[in-house]
Structure formats: C-alpha cells, structure tokens
Amino acid sequence: MKRTYIADAAKAALHPVRDKILRLLKEDERSTVELEALTGENRYNLYHHLDVLLKAGLACELESGSRARIFGIIKPKKPTAAVLLLGAKERKRNPHAWDKLITALEELEGERIPHRRSIRKLQVQIGYSWSE
Q1: Topology annotation, domain 8-73
Q2: What is the pLDDT of residues 41-67, one digit of tens each?
Q3: Which of 46, 90, 110, 115 could serve as 41's disulfide partner, Cβ 3.0–4.6 Å?
C-alpha cells in the first residue's frame, strides 16, 4: 500500500464528529443549537470541531447571534481542494454506483481494496491544478 500524506482540509474532515458536522452542513445551514442536538456533542466539543473546520476552510460562520451561531459549507468558485463525503445514505440510494466507484478506485490504484463489502464510507480528496 502506498503511503499518502493528506492536506489539512482532508485531515480535518476525517474525524468522525467533523464528518457528521460536514454532512449536516451539506444538507443545510445549521445553528450551533441544531448541531448540538443532531450530533449529541456538548457545546465545548462542538465549538472545538467547528473551529477546526473553520481553520481548514471547510466551513464558515454565516451569522453570530447572542444565543447561537449559524454555520454553513464553504463553496468557493475556484477551490484549491475539495473533499467528497460519501456514506451509508449514498450507498443505499445507489448501490450500483457505489460498487462501480470502488471498482474504479481499485483500477486506478492497481490493487484490490480489502474488505470492500465492509466499507461504510468513502472520503475522496480532490486537488485542482491551479492550486499547485
């Protein structure tokens, strides 16, 4: 297996709590109150993870109120990198496409991905040529 070094954005997205936050923000903008309820994280931990996502350039603060802050996903016109988050929802919605994607990754990598039937999520990092 090749050793791969990943950018800060991908590294930030790999954490399970931050992955969950990003998936929720992908659906819609969310307040910290909503994120607390949906993630089950306490406010202290939630703000820590949101801070990591902000510093990595994956999330942005849209509004800051007295009780709650509103966060969203950053969607730049000319991104330097992107992380695709695919999980159980996508696998269930289109299992054929999920299998094709794993097969394509195996072909590109030149070796089989072990335990492919046990894969529960995929995170694909994309780097753009203008960012090099």
Answers
A1: Arc Repressor Mutant, subunit A (1.10.10)
A2: 999 999 999 999 998 888 999 988 767
A3: 46
Tell me if 25 sits within 8 A of 83, measured CB to CB: no
List the chain domain ranges.
8-73, 81-131
Give this prediction's pTM: 0.68
123 touches 13 (CB < 8 A): yes
- E-strand stretches of 59-127: 59-64, 69-73, 81-86, 122-127
The Cα diameter of the chain in Å comes to 53
- Residue 114 and residue 117: Cα distance in Å, rounded? 9
Q: Are 53 and 18 within 8 A, CB to CB? A: yes
End-to-end CA distance of the chain: 25
